């Protein structure tokens, strides 16, 4: 398994299990990392991974309907991953603290020029949505 895959397994999938949702296999994690490499942010400090994030860039329509999508369904995730809009939605964030997450957020804003950013809390009960200041 790759270094990023190992980091995610140890720092995300073993910590943030949503009740009723089965964690992906290590092979599936590697496949996702390959398929989503353009939507992957890895923050390092002295060569060590400090945080990883995966995001989608969604259309306005999908962003507006985000709360109605079942992001635990593979077909929904695949469909959203193919979009290219101005709205960033993080589907995974694993970081070693606020400073690391902030560095990742800055990198995503630089790459995408997003107008909005969103993410679900780990239990998938609250959707956080924010407009990006220019």
Can you give a write-up of this model?
- This protein has about 130 residues and is of the alpha+beta class.
- It has a single domain, classed as Gcn5-related N-acetyltransferase (GNAT) (Aminopeptidase, 3-Layer(aba) Sandwich), CATH 3.40.630.
- Helices cover about 35% and strands about 25% of the residues.
- The chain has 5 helices and 5 strands, in the order ααββααβαββ.
- The termini are far apart.
Short description:
The protein is of the alpha+beta class and 134 residues long. It contains five helices and five strands, in the order ααββααβαββ.
Through-space gap between termini: 39 Å
Mean pLDDT: 86
* SSE string: HHEEHHEHEE
* Radius of gyration (Å): 14 Å
Instruction: Report helical residue fraction.
Output: 25-40%
Low-confidence stretches: none
CATH superfamily: Gcn5-related N-acetyltransferase (GNAT)
Overall shape: globular
Structural class by secondary-structure content: alpha+beta
For the biggest β-sheet, the strand order reads 1-2-3-4-5
CATH topology tier name: Aminopeptidase
Number of domains: 1
Classify the oligomer. Answer: single chain
Q: Beta-strand level of the residues, as a percent range?
A: 25-35%
> Treating each run of at least 4 consecutive H or I residues as one helix, how many helices?
5
**Number of E-type strands:** 5
User: Main β-sheet: number of strands, strand sense, barrel status?
Assistant: 5 strands, mixed
């Amino acid at each position: 398994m790759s270094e990023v895959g190992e980091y995610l397994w140890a720092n995300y999938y073993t910590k943030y299990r949503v009740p009723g949702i089965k964690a992906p296999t290590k092979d599936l994690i590697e496949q996702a990392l390959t398929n989503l490499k353009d939507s992957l942010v890895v923050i390092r400090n002295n060569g060590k991974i400090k945080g990883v994030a995966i995001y989608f860039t969604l259309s306005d329509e999908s962003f507006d309907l985000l709360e109605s999508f079942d992001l635990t369904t593979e077909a929904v995730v695949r469909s959203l991953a193919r979009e290219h809009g101005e709205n960033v939605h993080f589907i995974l964030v694993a970081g070693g603290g606020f400073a690391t997450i902030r560095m990742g957020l800055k990198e995503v804003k630089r790459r995408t020029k997003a107008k909005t950013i969103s993410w679900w809390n780990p239990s998938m009960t609250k959707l956080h949505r924010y407009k990006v200041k220019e």
